[in-house]
């Protein structure tokens, strides 16, 4: 009986500490509108919070995703990313070069795009 009371007391003390320390649902909780505003403001300025440097791998994934959405044959393009500078290499149809370069430049975090793309008459030219 005594062990049960001690155990129950410890559980109660732990719950009380969690209530006091918890900033989401506890005593120091922010009102929901303030929490939502803080989250929105943080998302709005997240590139600046990283010192203006987007992590290279995340940026490469974004650029690759944009290429996948833009082209019907994204495997034909090689992407290199360093400090916001994106380098594109490969061959694709002439009408797709400018469109792809513009869409990659519009990806958040891209500072410059170096296009080393070769304009082909048709995709069969690049396969030979």
How confident is the prediction overall: mean pLDDT?
77
The biggest sheet, with number of strands, parallel, antiparallel or mixed sense and barrel status, is: 3 strands, mixed
Unreliable runs: none
Order of helices and strands: HHHHEEHEH
Strand order of the largest sheet: 1-2-3
The CATH topology name of the largest domain reads Histidine-containing Protein, Chain: A
Shape: rod-shaped
**Would you identify the CATH architecture of the largest domain?**
2-Layer Sandwich
Structural class: alpha+beta
Number of helices: 6
How far is the N terminus from the C terminus? 84 Å
Q: What's the Cα radius of gyration?
A: 26 Å
Q: What fraction strand?
A: 15-25%
Number of domains: 2
